[in-house]
Prior knowledge:
The structure is a single chain. By secondary structure, this protein is mainly alpha-helical. It is built from 15 helices and 13 strands. Helix 2 packs antiparallel against helix 4 and helix 14 packs across helix 15. The termini are far apart. The model has no long low-confidence stretch (mean pLDDT 94).
Amino acid sequence: MMKKTDYELIRDYFAKNLPRVMKEPHDCFAHPFIDPGSIYEGNLWDWDTFWTVYAMANVVDDAFMGPEFRQKFEEHAKGNVLNFLSFQMEDGYIPMMVSADYFGEQEPYLLAKHRQGQVLNMHKPFLCQQACLVSGIAGSYDWILGRLPQLERYFECYDRYYYNSRCGLYVWADDVMIGMDNDPASFGRPRFSTANIFLNSFMVKELRSMAQLLTKAGDESRAAHYQQKAKALCAAIQAECWDKRDKFFYSVDVDIKTRGYDWFHKGLGVFWNTLFLKTRAWSSFLPLYIGLANGEQAAHLAKHITDPETFWSPYGVRSLSRDEKMYSLEATNNPSNWLGPIWIIAQYLVFRGLRIYKFEAEARELANRVLKLLGDDLRATGTLHEYYIPETGAPVMSPGFMNWNILALNMADELNGKPSIDDFLPFDFYRGE
Length: 433
């Protein structure tokens, strides 16, 4: 019998294991939903559910999983969004996650803290993106259009608590559950001080997605409002986050103001809006994914991606540049380690960005390295893991992790001509105001 290719091995693994991430309504969850698997069993997460749906949508065709599974998948994907909306508070706040540890009597942790007056991070900007994604998969937006007032309040909450009007960027409240758990640009820093390139790049996609939902509802005026907000945010990212000297996008510190001390500081005050937080992480390549970079910027970013002294490794793109003093491959959870290990979600987003800007050879090589990484893991351990060592491909944490690991198949399929699931989401190149 012929040895299976990496692609075939990975696809067969997911065919066998995908059903176990589908959860039925229970306790605090009024709707079915999808979890990431492994140690996150039974938990509802914001960007995790989005990327799991995005990846699963590529493989749940009838020939692969069967028509009954596809129907169930669509119901669970809608349930992700509807469950989160069911937890929305009066001021529009929606939590980043709801744990399976909640059983009816006790209010979920993030909601309880918010009700006590503590402004913590809220649902990352993937709610409208997931609504557009699921609507595209299902072929109808009808299920979500009645919830647009809730989505309006969600954006109002973002603008109320997390928008820095001086620089035009959004900030994290703190470093808890930020996706890239220990990103040095945010981890351990003062509250509300970091306008993270991760947050702001995905917010551009979120604003565009809200505009798409409003267009489907026939509200062109409100759709134009969100399109303009997306353009303004793009302009702010370009103005504040692009370093002309390093040819790189950075997260920035927004805690910038003249500090008054009696008779000191009466002359020229602080007139700049932000300072670069010069740690180089994979998230700085997200401007490629959202179409923000111009041609010159894209060429510089592609060089950074494929530099073996910094990001490029035998198994993909490191989550943090190898020459950073914070670079670490330690096994850790809560926070998970984004200080160098290989994460498949980062590989896919860099891959998409490279393809958008026509760096096809680089994208193909990256996909091949990722397929080999996961294929080697399955042959050695029989399962997949959450993240990996860049130099050796050795797995680090959380055996049985599913989630965005499925995106390895998206990479291969897109290279072979299959339309990208990203086509369900709005996209535009930023060309300035």
